[in-house]
Design a protein that fits this description.
The complex is a heterodimer of chains A (about 300) and B (about 100).
Chain A lengths: L5 H5 L7 H15 L8 H17 L2 H19 L1 H19 L13 H7 L7 H4 L9 E8 H5 L2 E7 L2 E7 L8 E4 L15 E8 L5 E3 L2 E9 H6 L1 E7 L2 E7 L8 E4 L16 E8 L6 H13 L1
Chain B lengths: L5 E3 H8 L3 H9 L6 E3 L2 E5 L3 H14 L3 H34 L2
Antiparallel strand pairs in B: 1-3, 2-3
The chains are: A alpha+beta (about 300), B mainly alpha (about 100).
Chain lengths: ~300, ~100
């Protein structure tokens, strides 16, 4: 367990007045508040630290205790034995004394340092305390799908907080797409509406196809002779194979667009994007003496 | 059309301990939607989460309604840029693969 320098968290010195603390706290809170830093775990952590520092330093009793004993924790860390003993004792005291009422997650938001020093959750952070929620909390879940799953409309059952939720995932769902399921979050407070459930889809793609919107892209190898003389080849599409006619004198990097062979369009049944194949010409290697001679003949003709 | 759930503005103000005038200024800036049914004003249930966010920004960070408007606009831009960045990364990945 590490000592936390609450003064440096707020960027103030030890002699800071109450007004200085308030001002510093406000400044940090504006920077790291979760509502202005959506999906930023680092900011969320920082915000918790800032809140914790403010909770200690803005409360004269807590500040006094921290100023008096806070440093000792640092010493305790250096002199391991003593630290382990006193730390252990106070920690168990803290966790039994705190108790989670179930209405706020305040207790879990504090650092070990805070809990061992001040005995776990006090009144919870401002966020939980002052802005009473009316609408139930929203839940966020993440669902990983393979690109093959995303290609076909399919049903899936998701368990969120013990409740089974049946989902029909339409073909063509995007990587990172978030769908909202109304009312499946936490229950509202004082008759407020329930929170919502937000499911973010993460689509794993380990195929040779790259997806961009509804289009798929893939490289396709072509041997030198077919590229030069033209011919028929079989190309892989996402869910099958297709016969392709290669024009004579096809250049490396030439693209062919196969209409409707791409990814399904989300919620538009029967509509598909395109598949774009890029030819990659493979030159022969390990030429025999005869082959080499023939290439030299060709070279002379040019 | 699905029936829309409406929540009485007074209920919200009591619950969040905010002045009705605060809700009025959010409305006058076009930040929230208010529906009037027989002279009683309501907020659609689906907009409550946004309102809660505005109240938190107002109470926790002491930002006035005009400031909230600026924040919401900037957050929208951040969101747009994030999607654009994700799409660009995807394209770049494809080009890298093609040129390997």
């Amino acid at each position: 367990m590490a000592f936390i320098d609450y003064y440096s968290v707020l960027g103030i010195d030890k002699n800071a007045s109450e007004a200085d603390i308030k001002k510093a706290y406000r400044k940090q809170a504006r920077k790291y508040h979760p509502d202005v830093n959506p999906d930023d775990k680092e900011a969320e952590l920082k915000f918790k630290e800032v809140n914790e520092a403010n909770e200690v330093l803005s409360d004269p009793e807590k500040r006094k205790k921290y100023d008096k004993y806070g440093k000792d924790w640092k010493h305790a860390d250096q002199y391991e034995q003593a630290g382990a003993r006193s730390g252990g004792q106070q920690r168990s005291q803290g966790s039994t004394g705190a108790g989670f009422g179930g209405e706020s997650f305040g207790g879990t938001d504090y650092s070990d340092f805070f809990e061992s020093m001040f005995g776990g959750s006090g009144g919870g952070f401002r966020q939980g305390g002052r802005s009473n929620k009316f609408k139930g909390q929203d839940f966020n879940a993440q669902l990983e799908l393979s690109i093959h799953d995303a290609y076909k409309t399919h049903k899936q059952v998701l368990t969120v907080n013990g409740e089974n939720i049946r989902l029909t995932i339409a073909a063509g769902i995007e990587d990172g797409q978030i769908i909202k399921i109304k009312g499946k979050g936490a229950q509202g407070i004082n008759g407020g509406p329930n929170g919502d459930l937000y499911i973010k889809f993460v689509i794993n793609n380990n195929t040779k196809f790259t997806r961009e919107g509804n289009n798929l892209y893939a490289p396709i190898e072509l041997d030198l002779y077919t590229a030069m003389l033209g011919g028929d080849i079989i190309a892989d599409t996402f869910d099958g194979k297709v016969k392709l006619k290669v024009a004579p004198e096809t250049q490396n990097g030439t693209k062919v667009r196969l209409k409707g062979k791409g990814f399904p369009v989300y919620k538009k049944e029967g509509e598909f994007g395109d598949l774009i194949l890029t030819y990659s010409i493979k030159n022969p290697t390990n030429l025999t003496a005869e082959e080499k001679m023939l290439f030299e003949e060709l070279q002379k003709l040019r | 059309m699905a029936q829309q759930e409406l929540i009485l503005i007074e209920t919200l103000c009591t619950h969040y301990e905010i002045e009705v005038s605060f809700v009025d200024s959010l409305y006058s800036l076009g930040l929230i939607e208010i529906q009037t049914v027989e002279k009683t004003r309501f907020i659609p249930e689906e907009k409550v989460a946004d309102l809660e966010k505005m109240i938190r920004i107002h109470q926790d960070l002491e930002v006035n309604p005009e400031g909230i408007d600026v924040i919401f606009n900037l957050l929208q831009r951040v969101d747009d840029l994030k999607s654009e960045l994700a799409a660009t990364k995807n394209t770049l990945k494809r080009y890298k693969l093609e040129n390997q």
